[in-house]
Hints:
The complex is a heterodimer. By secondary structure, chain A is α/β, with parallel strands linked by helices. Chain A has helices at about 35-40, 70, 85, 95-110, 140-145, 200-210, 240-245, 265-275, 290-300, 320-335, 355-360, 370-375, 395-420, 440-445, and strands spanning about 20-25, 80, 130, 155-160, 180, 185-190, 215-220, 235-240, 255-260, 280-285, 305, 340-345, 365, 435-440. Chain A is about 30% helix and about 15% strand. In chain A, helix 4 (about 95-110) packs across helix 13 (about 395-420), helix 6 packs parallel to helix 13 and helix 9 crosses helix 10 (about 320-335). Chain A starts with about 20 loop residues before the first strand and ends in a 10-residue tail after the last helix.
Amino acid sequence: MYERYHIHQEVTAPRFRPVPKFIIQRAGNCINCGKCERNCVYGVHMRRDDDPRRMADPLSQFCKDCFRCIAGCPQRALTISVGAEFTSLGSGGWTPQRVTTVWNESETGKVPVFGAGYRGMFSGPGYDAMWTDMSEIVRPTRDGIHGREHISTNVLICRNPPFLEFGPKGELLTPMAESIDLPVPFVFDLAALKESTKGIMQGLDQAAKELHTLLMVPVDKVEAYGMDLSSGRVVPIVGDDAGNEVSKMPEQVRFIELSDANRLKERVKAVRAARGGMIVGTRVKADAELESRLVDIACEADVIHVLFDEEGRESGGRYARDALRSYHKVLVKAGIRDEVTIIAGGGIAAAEQVPKSIICGTDVVSLDDALMVSLGCRMCHSCKGECPADLANAPSEYVKGRVVNMANAWRDQLLEVLGAMGIKEVRRLRGETGRAIFQEDAERDSFAGIFRGDVIG
Amino acid sequence: MESSAQGCTSVEAGAQQFDAKEEPKTGLAVDIGAQGIPGLRVVSGKGEMMLFSRDQSDIPQLLKDMLLNYRPDAVVQPSTAEAIVAILGYAERRDLKVVPRGISSSPFGGAVPVDGGIVIDLSSMNGIINVDPSQKRATVLAGARWSDIDHELGKSGLRLITSPSSKFSTVGGWIAGGGIGIGSLGGGHLSENVLTVKVANPKGVRTYVKGEEDFRRLFGSEGQLGVIVEATMMVKTKDPSSKPHLIVLQELKDAIDLAISLKRLDPIPEDLIYFSPNKMAYSNDLLHLDILPQGHALLVTSSNEASEKAIVSLMASKGVTEAGEHLARLLSHDRYFPMKLRRIGPGMLGAEVLTPTAKLEDMLAKAEELCEAFALDPLLEVHFLQGKDSLMLCYYPTDQGNQMLYALDAVKSMIVTASLVDMGARPYSLGIWNNSFVDSLPEEEMTGMSRSKKRMDPSQMFNSGKYFKLKGRTFGIPSMLLTPMVAGNGLKIMSSMSSTLSPFLRAATAVAKRTMGPKSRDPLKELADQCAMCGACVAVCPAYNLIGDERVTARGKLVTARTLIDGGKISEEHAQRTFLCMRCKACEQVCQSKLGLMDAYDDLESRLEKRYKRDAKEIEAFVKFAESSDIYEELIDKGLVLGSPKNGMGGERDV
Ligand SMILES: Cc1cc2nc3c(=O)[nH]c(=O)nc-3n(C[C@H](O)[C@H](O)[C@H](O)COP(=O)(O)OP(=O)(O)OC[C@H]3O[C@@H](n4cnc5c(N)ncnc54)[C@H](O)[C@@H]3O)c2cc1C
Ligand code: SF4
Ligand code: SF4
Ligand code: SF4
Ligand code: SF4
């Protein structure tokens, strides 16, 4: 029976007062006229419960910066400013805006709304220096995702044969390998989370169940996290003794990851010997040598899980945006791009980075820090000292609710992007760099004839 | 707006309706209600009625007990001229007296129902009928406020020629009352700027046109001749070159000489006022600043570019320098808040007389001398006018919380007035206070007035018991004390003996201060005593504009507070009314006594809550009702307080 993929989400309130971006202040000359209450659709301005003749203190955390209340106040009593606590949020690629956006997404499960226009820097490092093609639609947010029900966000994790052989009667001769069909192009990478209590892990497991996605977990932690390999959701990360480990695993495990690509050929062989048909992936650190080793790795592993650093860079500093495009090209040139699945993780900090990463050449995106931010993590510069989000005590129900909401919001945004491009399947987007504008190209196109070519970097 | 016998006021606005609890009608109100006159709200609650027993002047309780017992038999709020004619017809048939009333801002008891009867509150008849920019004319209903008219005129680049400094008072009230105010020097008396006045009597409405004898009599008639329902007046074009100037001199004589030269300028300045050194000192105190120069001050406002030039060149030729323009503007703005002094007392009393300009110096000296003898600290003002007279004001703080002292100070104010009248002045208005000086009015004015009274009010129903003869309802004899024969002569004697009398008054004052003051002062009571009952807070109050019950206004709430603290009783409904408020602070902004009203309301409400319950549902329903009403929307759009800075009424922004 046909069953449409649907994520059940529920508003999941934050455990702590969220840090408002905008601080709305009401001055003493307010006349309690209530206009702001009617003007603000986000519920920032309310009359007091105990005395409806007076306005309550503004609930700044809901403010979307639309300026309507400011402009409509007959007394000019309202002031809006960006809060200091807000600007101190996050670090690296996690700007304050990204942190709070993920919070909002995790609370409501909805596509975020931004207020008074788009301001300021239209570009930045990494994925911020590319813009997706939105030619098919003018106002995705306003038009909503209606009509996008038939856009597929499914991706496959598998090894594809380079070609198919058919018998004389048209029967397929090539043996088909195992494949895993994910309804969303992202998985959860739990190998190096900032906090890994059982509560969190249980919550993430339930979230993955709701989303029908996968969790990458070091095999020795599976039990401690209270997870069950036979759930089929867990992708165990195994070390040197891969063959032995795999032989102990229940049959529901169809995909494992090797912790690194050392002695790759040997370990893959051991795994295949222990369990034919197992999808074998390998985790590889994105460093300067990776690009040159890539073809070799692709010949052995079915899945290459590239790990960028927290800011989404190779250890040499190149951004995933550029690195992934190179990897993609290398594999295409070698004629084996379609044989492997590429998962890219590290530094993913916003919904729009999922399609951008795919455009640059990845098949699936793995999420790590974003999961923590969803729970209220502030991505402080250093994680020492008392955690303001008290992540250690986050209950599993809360974790599930928040992460499912974020995933739903991200998927909806992906649908918007696909809808705006007029693409019906996210798999068609992979490596389609023509579907994006890259800053350097745009600048070259616009200015090359004006400035000397070398002026533009 | 209609009231039903079930005891609730039901008002509608937009889709919403609000029913406020109201006391059942009693006495005459029942019968008037039964007449079913359209466009007439009949006030039913005793508590609400109480507000109509007095005006801005608060007669010392001692005098009140001794002399008069004021209480209206009924109060009505008409919204059409037809309703007024109907209620007048009713009153005539029942032989009831009628007292027209604006916002009751006049200080001499003119709108006080000394003879009982029906008080007709015109403050709901506040429409502006028409502004004609080409003819520079405006036609307004009698209850229209000067500030509202000015606001409306402003939209066509026009403004009023003259207005009382109580711009919150009604057109009818100022026609029937004073007629001298801001802009009088340049624009002349109000009667010169009004073209027609419509007056209602039991037979109908008649229009009086400038030039008729009865037309002129309406000005200063103090409600004796009928109910003014409408007026058409001339207005002028706004002139941005009009500017105030402040000149401070060390000698009184120099100040008066300069004033007379300024008055003779052509074009004549719009406005010219003299302030005594004491007034300047008080102004600094009240501003909590020390910026106004001390001395004898003149505040002169030019009327146009030519007048501006004339003033500047006159000052240059006389070699006088003026104070900074910001100070002139500050004082000029302060003219709209003459009652700030009340905060010092708390309370304020004084005398207002028209005096020949030629005798000004002597008059001012006499007033100073008398006040000093009586241990008073007066501030003096002179408003220069066209013609030979000037309006002189002499005010001093008093302590209303000390009834004995207050009564003594009130007597003193009469002696001061008597002395000035003796020197050739005449009281500016009569009301009750100055009734004993009726005799000082010019003969032809009195006979003219009598003729008009006979023609216009043959049945003697309007505002009786004043002007021609003062009457107390309960005791005919004590009220005699304020008649010209008794009090007038008595005061004359007292004023001639003032030097002998003053040691006695001084001693009595000292005793009163020491022994008769309240032992400990309730802060709320003290604040309520500081209220001038001037009514500035009424017109701006959205709650009042929505339900028409004055008990919701600041002065209504403060009367409630006083009643409560003095051990008086109020009804449950009255208590609930007090909670109907939008906390908009408009009252606080315009308060003549600059009272901290918001805190006072919280205090009052918490006291009420202890005795009566707080009806949270009614409060919420009221807020919802207000928010959905067009009246409220319109008030907010205007900025609640007219004449306030654009986009908001200022007030301190504390962030
Ligand atoms: C702060 C302040 C400043 C003031 N400044 C001035 C000033 O500059 N110049 C000045 O002259 N006065 C001044 N006054 C006194 C007073 O405000 C004015 O005389 C004012 O015009 C009275 O209007 P009202 O609506 O308050 O009338 P009320 O006080 O209600 O009534 C005054 C008299 O007029 C009668 N009356 C009222 N309405 C009608 C009507 N429609 N038909 C017939 N009779 C009516 C009443 O019976 C009463 O005798 C001031 C008062 C205050 C509190
Ligand atoms: S609109 Fe302005 S004046 Fe009105 S309640 Fe809001 S802040 Fe206060
Ligand atoms: S700026 Fe917009 S979102 Fe923010 S409080 Fe005002 S009306 Fe609400
Ligand atoms: S706060 Fe506003 S509604 Fe309340 S009494 Fe004052 S003016 Fe009226
Ligand atoms: S509260 Fe203020 S404005 Fe209102 S009547 Fe009293 S003094 Fe006048």
